[in-house]
Amino acid sequence: RSEVECLIKLFDALVAKPSNRLAAGGFDRNVFRDTLHSAFGMTDDMMMDRVFRIFDRDNDSCINVVEWVEGLSVFLRGTLEERIKYCFEVYDLNGDGCISREEMFQMLKNSLLKQPSEEDPDEGIKDLVDIVLKKMAIPFLLQDYDHDGKLSLMDFEKSVRDENLLLEAFGPCLPDIK
């Protein structure tokens, strides 16, 4: 109860700033991104936009108090199952229920630091996507029997349960321990 009250107070403080107030009683993407950056050190623009979309359940481009509390509940204190579903939704860019090879490529491309080299950086990312698919899509353990290069939620969940480090395989979308 006290944690929820603190989250509501924080929400009220964010909404109380004249520049942040929206008619719907919440705040927009920019305020949310600023909060993710200042409170959790997130810097990846694509990742922050994806996290905003997951929090904004009613798709009105505004985070209301219920979305704020429910979103932070999973973000900060979610069970492994809740965090798996949350990360999967963040990575499923088009919302079709699968993480495709193209979505993996986009997420990894945005989350990896680019090193100056003579090689095409996209080639290294494609190789990394292949490695991830081989690690996550073992036909005997997962449901990717047609080898279509996509991970379903079930594939992702099984892989993460076998190896917890895969939870944020396509970029950091949860706060670190501190």
UniProtKB/TrEMBL annotation:
<feature type="domain" description="EF-hand">
    <location>
        <begin position="79"/>
        <end position="114"/>
    </location>
</feature>
<dbReference type="InterPro" id="IPR011992">
    <property type="entry name" value="EF-hand-dom_pair"/>
</dbReference>
<protein>
    <submittedName>
        <fullName>EFCB1 protein</fullName>
    </submittedName>
</protein>
<dbReference type="InterPro" id="IPR018247">
    <property type="entry name" value="EF_Hand_1_Ca_BS"/>
</dbReference>
<keyword id="KW-0677">Repeat</keyword>
<keyword id="KW-0106">Calcium</keyword>
<keyword id="KW-0479">Metal-binding</keyword>
<dbReference type="Pfam" id="PF13499">
    <property type="entry name" value="EF-hand_7"/>
</dbReference>
<feature type="domain" description="EF-hand">
    <location>
        <begin position="43"/>
        <end position="78"/>
    </location>
</feature>
<dbReference type="GO" id="GO:0005509">
    <property type="term" value="F:calcium ion binding"/>
</dbReference>
<dbReference type="InterPro" id="IPR002048">
    <property type="entry name" value="EF_hand_dom"/>
</dbReference>
<dbReference type="InterPro" id="IPR028846">
    <property type="entry name" value="Recoverin"/>
</dbReference>
